[in-house]
Structures are given as C-alpha cells and as structure tokens.
Design brief:
With about 525 residues, this protein is an all-alpha fold. The chain contains 24 helices and two strands. A two-stranded antiparallel ribbon has the order 1-2.
C-alpha cells in the first residue's frame, strides 16, 4: 500500500484531510508485532504439550497416560490441571498486568508501554528456554503473560489512534493478523522441532519466541507515539508535528483542535475507571465486556491452544496432529487478511452475523462426526471422516478470523471516548484474558467430561452472540473516533436512552459535569476554524 495521494475523509460530520502515508503503514506494522508475540505464545503451548520429550520431563503422569491410552479414554488422556496451568498461567498474569498497563498507557504513552511489553517478553523467553523444572517453566509463562497484558493494552489503542478514519478498521486488524501469523509460525516450528532427536526440540520451540519479542522491542524504539497520547500528556506542539507527519498534509487544524478539546475533557476526569460506570458510558462498557466473553465462548482458543492435542485425541497420531494444526493456522492467517479488506467496506455487523451462521454449522457437524465415530477407546478415525473434521475446523477458524477475532479488539478500541479510552481498553484486555484463562484451564477437563458435546456447548454460545449482535451492536464503519457519541450511540434504537441530553457529550470529574459540546471555559474549537 504505497503512501501516496488518496485522502481519507469521514463520510459525514467533520471531515479530516488525511493521506495514507508510509509512516502510518510502517508504524502500524511495527506496533502490530505485539500481536505476533501473543499469537506465538498461544500456538506454541499446544504444540509442545503434545511433544513426548516435553511431557516426559515436566508432566510424567500425562506422558504415561498418552503411551497407555487403555487406562484412560481418548478424550481424557490429556486431562491434567498442571498441564492446563502451563498454558493458562500466561493469561492470568496478563490479566493482572493490564491494570498496571492502563496507568502506563495514560501517563507514559502507548509507545513506552509497548517497550515495557517487549522487555517482559524477552525475559520470559529466556526463562522458558532454559527451564529445568515446572516452577521455572511457569515463571517464564507468567513473565510472558505480563508482556501480553502490556502489549494488548497499548497496541490496539495505538493503531486506532494513528490510523486515518477510512482505513482504521483495516489497520487495527493488523494486530489480529499478526496474532494469526504468530500461531501459524508456532505450528510450523512445532512441526519441525517435533522431529528433532535428543529431547531438546521443545526448547527450540519456546526459544524462537525471542524473534517476535525482539521485533516488538525494536519496533517500539522506532515508532512515534500517537498524537492523541502526546496531546493527552500535554505535549501539544509535538502532538501537532506528529499529526502533520502521519496525515501527510498541512491542513490538520480541524483534527488537532478536536483532539485538544477531547484531551481537555479527558483531563477533567480524575478517576477514569469510576467514570466508566457512568450511565452514558454503559453502552460501550456492556458491548466491550460482551464481545470479550463471546470471543472466548466461540471455542476458538480451545481449538488454537490445543489443536495438536485435539487432533491427537481424535486419533490422527502425533505427526498428523501437528500437520493438521499447521493447516488450521494457515486458514486463520488467510481469513484475517479477508477481514482487513472487507471490514471498512461491508462493515462490522455483516461480518459478525455471517460468521455466526458459519461457526454454528461447522461446530454442529464436528459434534455429529465425533459423536458417531470417536469412542473412548476407538482407534484411528476413518480417513474420510478425519479429513471432514479438519475441513470443518478450518471452516470454523476462517469464520472466526474474519469476524469475532479481529472485531473483538477493534470495536472496543474505537468506541470509547478519550477520557475513558485507556480504562476501557484495560477492561477489554482484562475480561478477554480472564475468560481465556478460564477456557484454557478448563478445556481439557471439559473435553474429558463433555466429549463431543463440547462442540455443541460452544455452538450454543454462537447462537446467543449472534442474537446479541442483531439487536445491540451498532455499525461503527467510517465514523471518526471522536464522533461516536453523536453519530452512533445517540442514533441507536436501544442505546440512545443512555445518552441523556443533560450529559450531552459531558465528562464527569469529581462529581461535576463538564460540558464537551457545551465548551465550558469559553473554549470552542469551531470558532478557531
């Protein structure tokens, strides 16, 4: 996408002139490597937990069980709380770290928060690669989790703020694209390292996480902070210079003044988390929490964490299991690219609803095949059915990758007003990681007890989230980020009742109402134009 000459203009309301400049594209690509690290951590854990040498060293009970499946059924051989803790400890640590990340994002900026994430990732990788016992392994995962908390807080905000309105959706989805590339990279690495003799292949798998960790750290050193963040921290001239640089035009005064006004209102808010609970912020808060819960309850992370384990459970054999995981990883990447192209054209709601139908269908088909063909002590799944399961998993993954995956991060990052944006993103990351932890910790036990019914469980959630989308998620395509209240929430059939006229764009600070559209303190940006 060359940085050349077409302008990005909001289709109605305020028009901000903006070219798509090389610095915006490069900055977004560098920042989005935070997603690469997150994706690699998700993908690598499922692969190494199906490697015999890794299980023998850290989880001997599971190792004995996998070699003698007669003692436990197909569905239960990986059911071990310690093994699940190895995967899920990362998300619990990330959940805790996100509260600190909210503070650093506001006070130190998006760029420095990404740099902190990079350092956590690098130290975590060193611990994991050199692990001698389970405690060292878990400490490494906790440090990686801290990196995830900081990166997932800063990166989506940075991408939403630096991108021109018209392609904000596409550039924000670069984060999710990098998550999927990270998962695919991890699956390919696991496939190769699984063939290494000598018992150190898993160390290489965990150690190669250093590549995305290094990329994020270098990227954070090279990018400029977003103008929103600079202005929010009082660096007005620097923010104006960066805005001029990233928009590729000298006509930045309208956008700059709107950012200054949004920042002025944001500064009145001393307690952003308390402010989140204000009535007029309820639509964004409810939708944000719902999106994160629904994103995990599609069952996607269960499939991506444990794809090799899942396919091995279905009788594919270890090599074939990793191979199948590589296929689903590749589908994940390609489908996310589809969403980058389509999200700003067809809109958010269309993608969410189409995917709901596709995910429901594929999960019901998988459940029927497993219910009929995979018993506790059955041998290999018939080849034709095995291929059909992989095709259905790919159908499910592709639907998720162009809808709930990227949009679960995009919609919250573009809907909160500046005064609660950092706190709102913190809630987004926190709820996401909490439910990721719950699913990661429970999935193998659920697989053991529910058996094929686990896919029916997740498909039921898909129905619920599709109904929620139809009635309660508004379209935010092509709406400038600081105009969401007027053009989205006040127009929605249900949410408009929370936008009281008394609070017309107001921010509450220490119990006082500060008019945003009323321009208290005699400041009116339109008069400056």
């Amino acid at each position: 996408m060359p940085g050349g000459g077409f302008s990005t203009v909001a289709p109605a309301g305020v028009e901000f002139e903006a070219k798509i400049t090389p610095i915006v594209i490069i900055s977004c690509i560098m920042a989005a490597t935070g997603g690469l690290m997150f994706g690699y951590d998700v993908g690598v854990s499922g692969g190494v937990t199906s490697m015999p040498d890794f299980l023998k060293k850290f989880f001997p009970v599971v190792y004995r069980r996998t070699n003698d499946p007669g003692t436990n059924g197909n569905y239960c051989k990986y059911d071990n709380q310690g093994l699940q803790l190895f995967t899920s400890s990362l998300y619990l640590a990330g959940l805790t770290a996100t509260f600190f990340a909210s503070y650093t994002t506001r006070r130190l900026g998006r760029r420095l928060t990404m740099l902190i994430a990079g350092f956590f990732f690098i130290i975590g990788v060193i611990f994991n690669t050199a692990a001698q016992d389970l405690a060292m392994l878990i400490v490494g995962r906790i440090l990686l989790g801290c990196g995830v908390g900081f990166a997932n807080q800063a990166v989506p905000l940075f991408l939403s703020e630096i991108a021109p309105t018209r392609i904000r959706g596409g550039l924000n989805i670069l984060f999710q694209l990098n998550v999927t590339i990270g998962i695919l990279f991890a699956n390919l690495v696991n496939y190769g390292t699984n063939k290494i003799k000598g018992g150190w292949g898993w160390r290489l798998s965990l150690g190669l996480a250093g590549i995305p960790a290094g990329l994020l750290t270098v990227g954070a050193l090279l990018v400029v902070d977003s103008p929103n963040s600079l202005i929010e921290r009082g660096h007005l001239e620097q923010g104006k210079a960066v805005l001029r640089k990233i928009r590729g035009t000298d006509n930045i005064e309208p956008e700059f003044l709107e950012l200054v006004e949004a920042s002025r209102v944001a500064k009145q808010v001393k307690h952003p988390f308390r402010n989140l609970l204000q009535r007029r912020n309820r639509p964004q808060l409810v939708i944000t929490i719902a999106l994160q819960i629904f994103q995990q309850c599609t069952g996607i992370n269960a499939i991506m964490f444990y794809a090799p384990v899942l396919f091995d459970t279905l009788g594919f054999g270890n090599d074939a299991a990793l191979y199948s995981a590589v296929i689903t990883g590749a589908v994940n990447v390609l489908s996310t690219i589809v969403s980058i192209y389509s999200v700003d054209k067809v809109g958010r709601r269309v993608l969410l609803l189409e995917a709901g139908v596709q995910m429901f269908f594929s999960q019901v088909v998988i459940a029927i095949i497993l219910g009929l063909k995979v018993k506790d002590h059955s041998d290999d799944l018939h080849k034709g059915f095995a291929i059909l399961v992989v095709v259905m998993v790919c159908t499910f993954v592709s639907a998720f990758a162009w809808s709930w995956g990227p949009l679960g991060w995009l919609i919250p990052s573009e809907t909160f007003p500046l005064e609660t944006r950092s706190a709102g993103q913190s809630v987004t990351v926190c709820v996401n990681l909490l439910f990721t932890f719950v699913i990661a910790q429970a999935f193998l036990s659920m697989l053991c007890h529910f058996k094929y019914g686990i896919f029916l469980f997740f498909s039921g959630w898909v129905v619920i989230m599709s109904v929620f989308t139809v009635f309660l998620i508004p379209e935010t395509k092509n709406v400038p980020i600081e105009e969401m209240t007027e053009r989205v929430w006040k127009q929605h059939w249900f949410w408009k009742r929370f936008m009281d006229d008394d609070y017309d764009g107001a921010a509450v600070a220490n119990g006082d109402v500060v008019k945003k559209n009323g321009h208290s303190n005699g400041y009116d940006p339109t008069s400056q134009l």
